[in-house]
Amino acid sequence: MQLAVVTSTISRKAGGLFESVRHLHQAMARTVPTVVMSLRDEHTDEDLPAWFPLETRTFSAVGPRSLGLAPAMSRALDHLRPDLVHVHGLWQGPSIACSHYHRKTGRPYVVSPRGMLDPWALRNSRWKKLLAGYCFENRHLRQAACLHALCKPEADAIRAHGLANPVAVIPNGVELPQADLESGMRTEEGGSKLLVFLGRLHPKKGLVNALKAWAEIREREEWRFVIAGWDQGGHEAELKRLCDELGIVHADMPSAEFAGVASALPGRRPTLGICGAAWRTGPTVIFTGPTFGDAKDALLRRASAFILPSFSEGLPMSVLEAWAYGLPVFMTDHCNLPEGFASGAALRIGTDVESIAQGMCGLFRSPISDLRSLGQNGRSLVSERFTWPRIAGQMKEVYEWMLAGGAQPECVS
Fold it and tell me: 145-157: per-residue pLDDT in tens?
């Protein structure tokens, strides 16, 4: 089996897809020969080594970047002639390249919308997506041999879009940290605790209401709210202006300041560089910017709790990562991880200011033992259901069924 993976970006600009798509195909690399094809952007060269040992090919877009047309990608698919194509994401040139290849060869392909058919996502830039759907995306979706949903709500959204293709429901996965972790309240020198958001800074993540809730709470002296992630469309600047309007003291702290792992003594957690009285009287909201690799590992080891007040998600990698690090998680139903609530690994919040504020107050008042139990339940849940070898095995089974037929995998309906 020769597989071609086609997507619009393989850099950090993809947000959670940078982690999920990469780890999925790396987990299959030994048994499924794979070539990854992507459009180029300003971070491609920097992030390309993270895809090893996968073969990668990148192409410059022609015309508007938002459309991402890449005739060279189509020619590369024609030359490679893979048995199967897997497209991650919608609305751009990679969909056109895949459709072109399918028309020429009749070979099957699978499409992972990655949350891009969810109602909130369709309302965002609605007219552009209607036009792209009419011109190429609707045909691309209809002709797929299989569609891949991350969870049942996404499968329902696919059906609501009028698509009758077989749908495989396979979640994202996560890597479990190797070192031992202590679940519960992790404190910085001076007694401060960190509530962490980690992900793309986008309006759908609900950070506006989270900051409004933060501003209302008066019992958070020991806490700091760390907002770590890649800015999209200037939303980070909007969040900082909102902090100023709400009277929230905030500061920038590059994520590298969290990455004291290499120089820390064995058994010690990295520190933040703001300690003692300065930490207690300093900013209550910290913006770290993009956070990857050692810096992300250090932040999650140092965190006390995790929050995702999102309006729309496919299946968020950030929550799985928080659970892998034994963190108590506060999230909305839109995160599409109901098993987190059912297994006692997460506490439910809404997207409105009042609900988020209530969740934060509950966090600040909870006994350490309760929060430690939440974190331990989350790590157990990830270990049992969301590790990459398990997820990759399910996806490989779908590939083999698409190519050879036979009994339909259990995950397909």
Answer: 999 999 999 999 9
